[in-house]
Design goal:
This protein is mostly helical and about 220 residues long. It folds into 2 domains: about 150 residues, no CATH class; about 70 residues, Arc Repressor Mutant, subunit A (Orthogonal Bundle), CATH 1.10.10.10. Strand 4 and strand 5 form a beta hairpin. Helix 1 packs across helix 6.
């Protein structure tokens, strides 16, 4: 008859498998949508480049396609290095310093586009739109890698820690956990447990870990 620890380990494996499959399915959808968005972005870039370079008497479409591809690559690099919080902060200035900003569809607004903060905000909006395709593609790759890491988790160590936490009704300090499981590297195992919903990490003194009530109720089922 399987022990409680073996049941917990098998449950963790199945949970990781289902979560990993969900990640992969989401990644596939995001990847193909990202490719479509990147294709549209590339065509828009080439169109703008063609109109711009035509004024400079450069009409060779091959050059337009090459430069457009370089710009698309630069968008992937910019997306990888971008700080999302920076692009979320927008600030606008009205044409009159004393009047509040207003915008009415089909009528217009009193935003001064030449004001420094307004100009920066418009640039942020344009960059955010251009980053949509690269962001979807790179996010899909990250989801696949996350799914792979889930399957490589040390399920034996995680099951041992969960069993110890199940026996405790209060927080278990990190030092005590190391004492209870001397043959285990608790730092690496706890890092993996951060991906498990229902395991709470408490940083107040003494720092430790505890199970949520939902997780405790679920693990108790393996004892019945």
């Amino acid at each position: 008859m399987p022990s409680v620890e073996e049941d917990i380990r098998e449950w963790l494996r199945k949970r990781a498998l289902h979560t990993g499959l969900a990640y992969v399915a989401t990644a596939v959808v995001a990847f193909f949508i990202g490719l479509v968005v990147c294709a549209v972005t590339y065509m828009v870039i080439c169109g703008v480049l063609f109109l711009t370079l035509a004024n400079l008497f450069v009409t060779d479409p091959n050059w337009v396609m090459i430069i457009g591809f370089i710009v698309l690559v630069l968008l992937f690099i910019g997306n990888a290095r971008a700080d999302r919080s920076y692009y979320d902060k927008l600030s606008f200035t009205s044409g009159s310093t004393s009047s509040p900003i207003w915008a009415i569809p089909r009528v217009g607004s009193n935003i001064n586009p030449l004001a420094p903060d307004s100009f920066r905000s418009f640039v942020k909006i344009i960059c955010s739109v251009l980053f949509i395709g690269p962001h979807l593609v790179t996010s899909s790759v990250q989801l696949v890698l996350k799914a792979v890491r889930l399957q490589r988790r040390d399920f034996d160590a995680c099951a041992s820690i969960l069993l110890v936490l199940l026996e405790e009704r209060k927080r278990l300090p990190y030092a005590e956990l190391h004492h209870r499981l001397p043959g285990l590297n608790p730092v690496e195992a706890l890092e993996e447990l951060k991906q498990v919903d229902g395991v709470l990490f408490l940083e107040s003194d003494p720092p430790g870990v505890v199970l949520s009530s939902e997780m405790r109720a679920k693990l108790k089922e393996f004892r019945e």
